[in-house]
Amino acid sequence: MGSSKWIKLPDGRSARPGPDTLALFLADHDGVLRRPASPLPVQTSGSRSGARETDYSTESFDMSLLAGREITVFGAGSVGSHAVHALGPARLRINSVDAGAVHPRHTQGGRTAYNPTHIGLKKVDALKQRIERDFPGTVINPLPYHTTEIPDTQIKATVAESLVVVLAIDDPSEILRISDIVYPITELVQPAMHREGRSGHIVTCFPFVTPCLRCSLGVNEATDIHRLDSEPASGPDIAVVAQQAARIALDIAYSKVTGQPITRWDPTKNLIFIANTRQDTNPDGPGLHFEASQKRPGCPVCDPRTAA
Question: What does pTM read for this prediction?
Protein backbone atom coordinates (compact mmCIF):
# COMPACT_ATOMS: atom_id res chain seq x y z
CA MET A 1 0.00 0.00 0.00
CA GLY A 2 1.37 3.43 -0.90
CA SER A 3 1.83 6.29 1.50
CA SER A 4 -1.11 8.64 1.91
CA LYS A 5 1.22 11.64 2.01
CA TRP A 6 0.88 13.89 -1.02
CA ILE A 7 3.94 15.49 -2.65
CA LYS A 8 4.28 18.48 -4.96
CA LEU A 9 5.26 17.81 -8.59
CA PRO A 10 7.31 20.27 -10.68
CA ASP A 11 4.22 21.31 -12.66
CA GLY A 12 2.40 22.29 -9.47
CA ARG A 13 0.10 19.27 -9.24
CA SER A 14 -0.06 17.02 -6.21
CA ALA A 15 0.87 13.34 -6.28
CA ARG A 16 1.23 10.39 -3.95
CA PRO A 17 3.03 7.03 -4.22
CA GLY A 18 1.22 4.13 -5.84
CA PRO A 19 2.01 0.48 -6.60
CA ASP A 20 4.47 -0.12 -9.44
CA THR A 21 2.30 -2.45 -11.52
CA LEU A 22 4.60 -2.16 -14.53
CA ALA A 23 7.59 -3.32 -12.50
CA LEU A 24 5.57 -6.28 -11.24
CA PHE A 25 4.51 -7.13 -14.80
CA LEU A 26 8.03 -7.03 -16.22
CA ALA A 27 9.34 -9.05 -13.28
CA ASP A 28 6.89 -11.84 -14.15
CA HIS A 29 7.42 -11.77 -17.91
CA ASP A 30 10.32 -12.27 -20.29
CA GLY A 31 10.94 -8.62 -21.08
CA VAL A 32 14.02 -6.68 -22.12
CA LEU A 33 15.19 -5.86 -18.60
CA ARG A 34 16.32 -7.73 -15.53
CA ARG A 35 14.65 -5.26 -13.18
CA PRO A 36 15.73 -5.02 -9.56
CA ALA A 37 13.27 -3.64 -7.07
CA SER A 38 12.55 -0.07 -8.13
CA PRO A 39 11.21 2.98 -6.27
CA LEU A 40 7.48 3.50 -6.04
CA PRO A 41 5.98 5.53 -8.87
CA VAL A 42 3.60 8.41 -8.33
CA GLN A 43 -0.10 8.53 -9.00
CA THR A 44 -1.23 11.99 -10.06
CA SER A 45 -4.32 13.47 -8.50
CA GLY A 46 -7.03 14.27 -10.99
CA SER A 47 -5.08 12.66 -13.84
CA ARG A 48 -6.59 10.82 -16.74
CA SER A 49 -6.82 7.04 -16.81
CA GLY A 50 -3.65 6.88 -18.92
CA ALA A 51 -4.70 3.79 -20.89
CA ARG A 52 -5.80 5.63 -24.02
CA GLU A 53 -5.66 9.35 -24.58
CA THR A 54 -7.41 11.53 -27.13
CA ASP A 55 -5.29 12.89 -29.97
CA TYR A 56 -4.57 16.55 -30.52
CA SER A 57 -7.14 18.05 -32.82
CA THR A 58 -5.90 19.59 -36.04
CA GLU A 59 -6.86 22.99 -34.67
CA SER A 60 -4.65 22.69 -31.60
CA PHE A 61 -1.66 20.91 -33.17
CA ASP A 62 -0.29 22.95 -36.07
CA MET A 63 2.60 20.74 -37.19
CA SER A 64 3.93 23.48 -39.48
CA LEU A 65 5.26 25.22 -36.36
CA LEU A 66 7.88 22.48 -36.09
CA ALA A 67 9.28 23.05 -39.59
CA GLY A 68 13.04 23.53 -39.55
CA ARG A 69 13.40 22.60 -35.89
CA GLU A 70 15.95 19.98 -34.91
CA ILE A 71 15.63 16.48 -33.46
CA THR A 72 18.40 13.90 -33.03
CA VAL A 73 17.76 10.17 -33.48
CA PHE A 74 20.44 7.72 -32.36
CA GLY A 75 19.96 4.44 -34.22
CA ALA A 76 18.61 3.74 -37.70
CA GLY A 77 17.74 0.08 -37.34
CA SER A 78 14.27 -1.39 -36.98
CA VAL A 79 12.86 1.01 -34.39
CA GLY A 80 15.02 3.98 -35.38
CA SER A 81 14.21 3.89 -39.09
CA HIS A 82 10.47 3.56 -38.50
CA ALA A 83 10.64 6.39 -35.95
CA VAL A 84 12.41 8.71 -38.40
CA HIS A 85 9.83 7.88 -41.07
CA ALA A 86 7.02 8.71 -38.62
CA LEU A 87 8.71 12.05 -37.88
CA GLY A 88 8.88 12.87 -41.58
CA PRO A 89 5.64 14.85 -41.96
CA ALA A 90 6.80 17.49 -39.45
CA ARG A 91 9.43 18.88 -41.85
CA LEU A 92 12.10 18.72 -39.17
CA ARG A 93 15.87 18.73 -39.45
CA ILE A 94 16.77 15.26 -38.16
CA ASN A 95 20.28 14.26 -37.12
CA SER A 96 20.38 10.52 -37.87
CA VAL A 97 23.25 8.65 -36.20
CA ASP A 98 24.13 5.08 -37.19
CA ALA A 99 27.24 3.40 -38.64
CA GLY A 100 25.47 0.40 -40.18
CA ALA A 101 24.66 -0.43 -43.79
CA VAL A 102 21.44 -1.80 -45.26
CA HIS A 103 21.57 -5.57 -45.86
CA PRO A 104 18.98 -7.75 -47.61
CA ARG A 105 17.54 -8.97 -44.30
CA HIS A 106 16.71 -5.37 -43.40
CA THR A 107 14.31 -5.09 -46.33
CA GLN A 108 12.17 -8.13 -45.52
CA GLY A 109 8.85 -8.23 -43.69
CA GLY A 110 8.66 -4.52 -43.02
CA ARG A 111 11.14 -4.74 -40.13
CA THR A 112 12.70 -1.43 -41.21
CA ALA A 113 11.86 1.55 -43.38
CA TYR A 114 14.29 0.33 -46.07
CA ASN A 115 13.56 -1.41 -49.37
CA PRO A 116 15.77 -3.43 -51.77
CA THR A 117 16.92 -0.30 -53.61
CA HIS A 118 18.74 0.75 -50.42
CA ILE A 119 20.86 -2.40 -50.06
CA GLY A 120 24.52 -1.50 -49.74
CA LEU A 121 23.90 2.08 -48.66
CA LYS A 122 24.67 3.37 -45.20
CA LYS A 123 21.43 3.34 -43.24
CA VAL A 124 21.57 7.07 -42.62
CA ASP A 125 22.10 7.76 -46.33
CA ALA A 126 19.22 5.44 -47.21
CA LEU A 127 17.02 7.30 -44.74
CA LYS A 128 18.02 10.62 -46.25
CA GLN A 129 17.15 9.31 -49.71
CA ARG A 130 13.74 7.98 -48.70
CA ILE A 131 12.60 10.58 -46.16
CA GLU A 132 13.55 13.63 -48.22
CA ARG A 133 11.76 12.05 -51.21
CA ASP A 134 8.61 11.14 -49.27
CA PHE A 135 8.44 14.30 -47.15
CA PRO A 136 9.61 17.45 -48.97
CA GLY A 137 10.87 19.98 -46.46
CA THR A 138 12.27 17.39 -44.06
CA VAL A 139 16.07 17.37 -43.94
CA ILE A 140 18.10 14.37 -42.80
CA ASN A 141 21.60 15.12 -41.55
CA PRO A 142 23.30 11.72 -41.98
CA LEU A 143 25.94 10.91 -39.36
CA PRO A 144 27.39 7.48 -40.31
CA TYR A 145 29.17 6.79 -37.04
CA HIS A 146 28.86 4.29 -34.25
CA THR A 147 28.18 6.11 -31.00
CA THR A 148 31.39 4.65 -29.53
CA GLU A 149 33.30 6.71 -32.11
CA ILE A 150 31.73 9.98 -30.96
CA PRO A 151 33.30 11.65 -27.90
CA ASP A 152 31.11 13.03 -25.13
CA THR A 153 31.82 16.63 -26.16
CA GLN A 154 30.60 15.99 -29.69
CA ILE A 155 27.43 14.27 -28.49
CA LYS A 156 26.71 17.27 -26.29
CA ALA A 157 27.24 19.61 -29.23
CA THR A 158 25.04 17.47 -31.50
CA VAL A 159 22.07 17.38 -29.12
CA ALA A 160 22.39 20.92 -27.75
CA GLU A 161 20.10 22.39 -30.42
CA SER A 162 17.70 19.43 -30.47
CA LEU A 163 14.18 19.82 -29.12
CA VAL A 164 14.23 16.15 -28.20
CA VAL A 165 16.51 13.12 -28.61
CA VAL A 166 15.22 9.68 -29.62
CA LEU A 167 17.54 6.94 -28.37
CA ALA A 168 16.86 3.81 -30.46
CA ILE A 169 20.08 1.82 -30.21
CA ASP A 170 20.77 -1.68 -28.85
CA ASP A 171 24.17 -1.41 -27.14
CA PRO A 172 23.44 -1.36 -23.37
CA SER A 173 26.63 0.51 -22.47
CA GLU A 174 25.94 3.17 -25.08
CA ILE A 175 22.29 3.43 -24.10
CA LEU A 176 23.32 4.42 -20.58
CA ARG A 177 26.25 6.57 -21.68
CA ILE A 178 24.21 8.65 -24.12
CA SER A 179 21.19 8.94 -21.84
CA ASP A 180 23.45 10.19 -19.04
CA ILE A 181 24.95 12.81 -21.37
CA VAL A 182 21.62 13.95 -22.81
CA TYR A 183 19.68 14.08 -19.52
CA PRO A 184 20.76 17.56 -18.34
CA ILE A 185 20.63 19.02 -21.87
CA THR A 186 17.28 18.18 -23.46
CA GLU A 187 14.34 15.79 -23.40
CA LEU A 188 14.97 12.12 -24.17
CA VAL A 189 12.66 9.44 -25.61
CA GLN A 190 13.94 5.84 -25.39
CA PRO A 191 11.89 3.20 -27.22
CA ALA A 192 12.72 -0.51 -27.02
CA MET A 193 11.21 -3.80 -28.09
CA HIS A 194 10.72 -6.77 -25.76
CA ARG A 195 11.04 -10.43 -26.61
CA GLU A 196 9.65 -11.44 -30.01
CA GLY A 197 7.97 -8.05 -30.33
CA ARG A 198 5.12 -9.08 -28.06
CA SER A 199 5.56 -5.82 -26.19
CA GLY A 200 7.82 -2.82 -25.86
CA HIS A 201 8.38 0.27 -23.76
CA ILE A 202 9.06 3.96 -24.13
CA VAL A 203 10.78 6.01 -21.45
CA THR A 204 10.62 9.81 -21.46
CA CYS A 205 13.15 11.85 -19.51
CA PHE A 206 12.67 15.57 -18.83
CA PRO A 207 15.86 17.22 -17.47
CA PHE A 208 15.76 17.32 -13.65
CA VAL A 209 11.97 16.94 -13.68
CA THR A 210 11.34 13.26 -14.36
CA PRO A 211 13.91 10.58 -13.46
CA CYS A 212 16.86 9.74 -15.69
CA LEU A 213 16.82 6.56 -17.76
CA ARG A 214 18.72 4.55 -15.13
CA CYS A 215 16.19 5.40 -12.43
CA SER A 216 13.21 5.02 -14.77
CA LEU A 217 14.24 1.49 -15.74
CA GLY A 218 15.56 0.60 -12.30
CA VAL A 219 18.99 -0.34 -13.66
CA ASN A 220 22.47 0.43 -12.41
CA GLU A 221 24.80 -1.08 -15.00
CA ALA A 222 24.73 -2.05 -18.66
CA THR A 223 24.58 -5.72 -17.62
CA ASP A 224 21.08 -5.05 -16.26
CA ILE A 225 19.86 -4.57 -19.86
CA HIS A 226 19.39 -7.45 -22.29
CA ARG A 227 20.32 -6.95 -25.94
CA LEU A 228 17.46 -7.97 -28.20
CA ASP A 229 18.71 -6.69 -31.56
CA SER A 230 18.65 -10.20 -33.08
CA GLU A 231 15.20 -11.12 -31.76
CA PRO A 232 12.54 -12.13 -34.28
CA ALA A 233 9.68 -9.65 -34.40
CA SER A 234 7.07 -8.72 -36.95
CA GLY A 235 7.36 -5.47 -38.85
CA PRO A 236 3.94 -4.19 -37.71
CA ASP A 237 4.81 -4.78 -34.03
CA ILE A 238 8.09 -2.89 -34.43
CA ALA A 239 6.31 -0.06 -36.22
CA VAL A 240 3.76 0.28 -33.40
CA VAL A 241 6.48 1.03 -30.83
CA ALA A 242 8.46 3.26 -33.20
CA GLN A 243 5.46 5.29 -34.32
CA GLN A 244 4.27 5.79 -30.75
CA ALA A 245 7.78 6.99 -29.79
CA ALA A 246 7.74 9.44 -32.70
CA ARG A 247 4.34 10.81 -31.67
CA ILE A 248 5.59 11.32 -28.13
CA ALA A 249 8.71 13.06 -29.43
CA LEU A 250 6.54 15.35 -31.56
CA ASP A 251 4.31 16.12 -28.57
CA ILE A 252 7.36 17.15 -26.55
CA ALA A 253 8.80 19.21 -29.40
CA TYR A 254 5.47 20.94 -30.05
CA SER A 255 5.04 21.76 -26.37
CA LYS A 256 8.52 23.30 -26.22
CA VAL A 257 7.96 25.37 -29.36
CA THR A 258 4.47 26.64 -28.50
CA GLY A 259 4.49 26.65 -24.71
CA GLN A 260 1.26 24.64 -24.74
CA PRO A 261 0.98 21.80 -22.21
CA ILE A 262 0.97 18.21 -23.39
CA THR A 263 -2.60 16.94 -23.15
CA ARG A 264 -2.60 13.67 -25.09
CA TRP A 265 -0.78 11.86 -22.24
CA ASP A 266 0.44 12.63 -18.72
CA PRO A 267 4.14 13.60 -18.85
CA THR A 268 4.60 12.67 -15.18
CA LYS A 269 3.92 9.06 -16.18
CA ASN A 270 7.20 8.60 -17.97
CA LEU A 271 7.24 4.80 -18.32
CA ILE A 272 4.96 3.68 -21.13
CA PHE A 273 4.39 -0.03 -21.67
CA ILE A 274 3.13 -1.07 -25.10
CA ALA A 275 1.34 -4.40 -25.50
CA ASN A 276 1.12 -5.72 -29.06
CA THR A 277 -0.86 -8.77 -27.93
CA ARG A 278 -3.17 -9.54 -25.03
CA GLN A 279 -1.23 -9.00 -21.79
CA ASP A 280 -1.98 -9.01 -18.07
CA THR A 281 -1.97 -5.21 -18.06
CA ASN A 282 -4.20 -5.13 -21.14
CA PRO A 283 -6.47 -8.23 -20.91
CA ASP A 284 -8.79 -6.92 -23.60
CA GLY A 285 -6.05 -6.71 -26.19
CA PRO A 286 -3.23 -4.45 -27.41
CA GLY A 287 -2.84 -1.00 -25.89
CA LEU A 288 -0.81 1.34 -23.71
CA HIS A 289 -0.14 1.29 -19.99
CA PHE A 290 1.35 4.37 -18.30
CA GLU A 291 3.39 4.41 -15.08
CA ALA A 292 5.44 7.01 -13.22
CA SER A 293 8.85 6.40 -11.69
CA GLN A 294 10.88 8.24 -9.07
CA LYS A 295 14.45 9.42 -8.82
CA ARG A 296 16.61 7.30 -6.59
CA PRO A 297 18.11 9.39 -3.78
CA GLY A 298 21.70 10.29 -4.53
CA CYS A 299 21.52 9.38 -8.23
CA PRO A 300 24.58 11.03 -9.83
CA VAL A 301 22.59 11.69 -13.02
CA CYS A 302 19.22 13.10 -12.00
CA ASP A 303 19.44 14.05 -8.31
CA PRO A 304 20.35 17.79 -8.46
CA ARG A 305 22.03 17.53 -5.08
CA THR A 306 24.64 15.14 -6.46
CA ALA A 307 24.54 15.63 -10.25
CA ALA A 308 27.51 17.55 -11.60
Answer: 0.78
